[in-house]
Design brief:
Shape: elongated
CATH topology: Four Helix Bundle (Hemerythrin (Met), subunit A)
Order of helices and strands: HHHHH
Number of strands: 0
Structural class: mainly alpha
Number of domains: 1
Strand content: under 5%
Largest sheet: none
Helix content: over 70%
Length: 157
Amino acid sequence: MDALIALASFGATLGIAGGVLGSAAGISRAAPAGLSVLAEEPEQFKYVLLLSTLPMTQTFYGFIFTFYTLMIVLPATQLTQFKSLAIVGVGLMVFIAEAFSAYFQGVVCMQGILELPKTKGKILTSSLILAAYEELFGILGMVFGLILVLMTSGLPI
């Protein structure tokens, strides 16, 4: 039974791991672009700060999935080998959703940051809207992951 709990716990922690990895990669795309813009136009700081930190939200979504799975689902579930492996599979799906969502959101934000000086900051709203599309994949990954973990565990949705 301890091996099943360890395996399911590993699956649950994949959610936050994907969020952290993707957020770090996304911010590493956006932040250097922000530094180059700030070197030219320091007054763009608030816009650069907003856009460069946006990929961090996927870490939060991964955390919600991990916390909910570890604290609510696993203690209330009679684990079997199938259920433990299924939770690993769901965790891997959440990992991929959060990692790719955050990374590509960082790419969108980077381009928005690079366009700030040319538009005198007027590109901010458009950049946020386009970045929100990538954000949606992180939200959907978390929500679908939670639904699948609940279905796998046999708990009511």
